[in-house]
């Protein structure tokens, strides 16, 4: 059973989703705002179940076939020009993909397909059969690769493209909500155990205030908050500075806001509030 | 088993198939959850719903299905008054506090609420008097009464007066809602879908040949990224007058479109298209560009999106001199037709709610003009418009 670990806080419904996916051996599709720990989930799951993790990071040029295997025709041609002995066996030039590697594990592994929405629209459709049956056919060597153990598959998406229905039907789906203040306090406690209670409360207040400002392009997320805290601790910023609403600007805001326009918006707001206050 | 539940989901338009139902039963058989409604709610959500935009519909369906089955009645007991008072005051802005006076002040409101709660024995949704969800009564959650008091609509989960599925936290994700900060992002993704049609690599033959030759005949393959499909977009924004109400929405749409399209040109107009449009609203009288020039400059492959409420006097479209700002020689309809005959793909986004369209004569004129390619400025509407012009 998957639960929160010592450095990862999983909400109840998230651990339920993971457990259901494990029980029924179905891929689990995770969506959520950037920085809510989607990718980290797979890493923590691997740690807590003590099994091997294969990470397949998807780029815009990634093809489904690359997850299965690739036939390296170029090096075979090169070898043939050089008269290498290996050239007679085609299997020397089959490069195993992440899916294949995961299928070969004796112990049930975890396969993370990260940011599946980055790929071409047809990408998920090309993986339907492989995810369903957990087997595929290698044309070059005429062999069928079948999973020894159905791997636990975690798929993350940032919602950049819509995924096809046929693919969705084969997955379980969970949307990670942005954590509440209470959950957020727990998460921070895990990452920075010795943050003073007061300081923590106040940073959270500043943080959620910042998220509430309408017009901000990229709202700061959990991972940014954690970075910011790190900086605050390193800088030994006192509570007074943090809470002094009249002071011009949030200290070290660069960790929270990643967008020029957001920063200038914040500066404008700070300027206005100083004039009003 | 759960067939009624499944049918209720279907009734609420949650897209799910028999396969999901079988999965749900299989998971329950494995004993992942047992005899806990809240867990069941979460589990069924994981199995049955595949997109967060359907979460709200799911919550609605779940509430309906479990209304009869649920044994706990949330209004069994009266909520402690001091807790309620504290909650209210936290939520009220000065403006709202002033509005409260319309109901005789907080004291009066509290008294009425208490009476209502005593009268009311069952959980309630909709309607205009009882405490519940989605109604217009001053009490309850998610209602539309500006003087309303939110009961248990707090983010804090400890106040479990309202069930999870009654909280309807995912209302924002529903596609038919108006655009919000998050929703605009979703709409933006839709635009992206048609701006890029997938990326892939292809063989760079020239470089491959050259470097293979340099390599002494040993093959050296070079790849180059395939060119992205560059969609060209021309946007016309209605500005001023009745559009002032929608400035925020239009700004969001504009910034979304701006980041999405490499080839984006935008111009402003007022109410109806006439002989001139402009690009900088501050200098709208000094720096204008004529419609002729636009038709000369941009090829027919540009996709045209109008953003406007199309709400005006009908004469502003059909009569010469109908413009409220200047004397136009020809009626607006002439200029519209010229533009429409030049560009092949045109869509009109209207920030007015779709249900109100029939009440404006000018909207139906414009609708006929653009061949009924007018869509509401919602996530769903943008999606439809994009589909139409892509």
Any overview of this molecule?
The complex is a heterodimer of chains A (277) and B (390). By secondary structure, chain A is α/β, with parallel strands linked by helices. Chain A contains 13 helices and nine strands. In chain A, the strands form three sheets. In chain A, strands 2-5-8-1-9 form a five-stranded parallel sheet, with helices on both faces. A two-stranded antiparallel ribbon of chain A has the order 3-4. In chain A, helix 9 crosses helix 10. The N and C termini of chain A lie far apart (53 Å). The model of chain A has no long low-confidence stretch (mean pLDDT 82). The relative contact order of chain B is 0.07. The radius of gyration of chain B is 28 Å and the shape is flat. At the A-B interface, helix 1, helix 4, helix 8 and strand 9 of A face helix 2, helix 3 and helix 9 of B.
In brief, what are we looking at here?
The complex is a heterodimer of chains A (277) and B (390). Chain A is of the alpha/beta class and 277 residues long. Chain A has helices spanning 12-24, 38-49, 64-68, 73-82, 98-104, 123-126, 128-133, 165-169, 181-191, 197-212, 222-235, 239-243, 260-276; strands at 28-32, 53-57, 69-71, 94-96, 110-114, 135-138, 143-146, 152-157, 172-176.
């Amino acid at each position: 059973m998957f639960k929160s670990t010592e450095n990862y806080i999983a909400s109840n419904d998230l651990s339920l989703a993971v457990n259901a996916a494990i029980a029924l051996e179905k891929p689990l599709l995770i969506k959520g705002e950037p920085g809510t720990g989607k990718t980290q989930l797979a890493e923590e799951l691997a740690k807590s179940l003590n099994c091997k993790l294969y990470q397949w990071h998807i780029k815009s040029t990634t093809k489904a076939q690359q997850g299965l295997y690739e036939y390296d025709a170029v090096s075979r041609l090169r070898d043939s020009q050089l008269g290498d002995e290996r050239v007679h066996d085609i299997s020397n030039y089959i490069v195993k993909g992440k899916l294949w590697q995961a299928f070969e594990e004796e112990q049930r592994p975890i396969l993370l397909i990260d940011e599946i929405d980055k790929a071409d629209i047809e990408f998920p459709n090309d993986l339907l059969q492989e995810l369903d049956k957990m087997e595929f056919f290698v044309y070059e060597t005429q062999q069928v690769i079948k999973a020894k153990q159905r791997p636990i598959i975690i798929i993350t998406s940032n919602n950049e493209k819509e995924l096809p229905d046929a693919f969705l039907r084969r997955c379980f789906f969970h949307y990670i909500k942005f954590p509440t203040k209470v959950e957020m306090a727990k998460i921070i406690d895990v990452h920075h155990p010795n943050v003073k209670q007061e300081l923590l409360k106040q940073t959270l207040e500043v943080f959620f205030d910042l998220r509430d400002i309408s017009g901000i392009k990229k709202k700061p997320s959990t991972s940014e908050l954690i970075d910011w805290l790190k900086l605050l601790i390193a800088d030994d910023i006192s509570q007074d500075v943090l809470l002094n609403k009249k002071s011009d600007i949030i200290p070290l805001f660069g960790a929270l806001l990643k967008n020029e326009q957001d920063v200038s918006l914040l500066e404008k707001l700070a300027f206005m509030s100083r004039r009003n206050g | 088993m759960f067939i009624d539940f499944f049918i209720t989901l279907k009734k609420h338009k949650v897209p799910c198939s028999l396969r999901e139902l079988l999965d749900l039963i299989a998971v329950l058989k494995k004993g992942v959850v047992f005899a806990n409604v809240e867990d069941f709610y979460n589990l069924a959500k994981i199995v049955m719903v595949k997109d967060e935009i359907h979460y709200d519909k799911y919550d609605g369906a779940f509430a309906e299905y479990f209304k009869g089955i649920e044994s706990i009645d949330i209004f069994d007991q009266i909520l402690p008054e001091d807790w309620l008072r504290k909650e209210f005051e936290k939520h009220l802005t000065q403006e709202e506090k002033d509005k409260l006076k319309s109901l005789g002040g907080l004291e009066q409101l509290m008294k009425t609420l208490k009476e209502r709660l005593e009268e009311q024995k069952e959980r309630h949704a909709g309607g205009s008097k009882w405490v519940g969800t989605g109604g217009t009564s001053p009490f309850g959650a998610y209602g539309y009464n500006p003087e309303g008091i939110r009961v248990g609509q707090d983010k804090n989960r400890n106040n479990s007066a309202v069930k999870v599925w009654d909280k309807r936290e995912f209302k924002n994700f529903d596609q038919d809602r108006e655009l919000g900060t998050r929703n605009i992002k979703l709409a933006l993704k839709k635009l992206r879908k048609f701006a890029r049609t997938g990326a892939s690599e292809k063989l760079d033959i020239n470089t491959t040949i050259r470097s293979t030759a340099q390599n002494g005949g040993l093959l050296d393959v070079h790849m180059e990224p395939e060119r992205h499909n560059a969609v060209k977009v021309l946007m016309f924004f209605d500005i001023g007058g009745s559009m002032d109400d929608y400035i925020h929405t239009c700004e969001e749409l504009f910034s979304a479109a701006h980041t999405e399209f490499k080839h984006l040109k935008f111009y402003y107009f007022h109410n109806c298209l006439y002989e001139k449009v402009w690009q900088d609203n501050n200098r709208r009288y000094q720096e204008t560009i004529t419609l002729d020039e636009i038709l000369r400059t941009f090829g027919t492959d540009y996709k045209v999106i109008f953003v406007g409420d199309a709400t005006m006097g009908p004469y502003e479209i059909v009569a010469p001199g109908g413009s409220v700002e200047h004397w136009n020689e020809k009626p607006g309809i002439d200029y519209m037709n010229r533009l429409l005959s030049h560009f092949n793909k045109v869509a009109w986004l209207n920030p007015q709610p779709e249900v109100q369209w029939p009440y404006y004569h000018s909207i139906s004129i414009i609708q006929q003009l653009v061949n009924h390619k007018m869509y509401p400025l919602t996530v769903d509407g943008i999606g439809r418009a994009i589909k139409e012009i892509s």
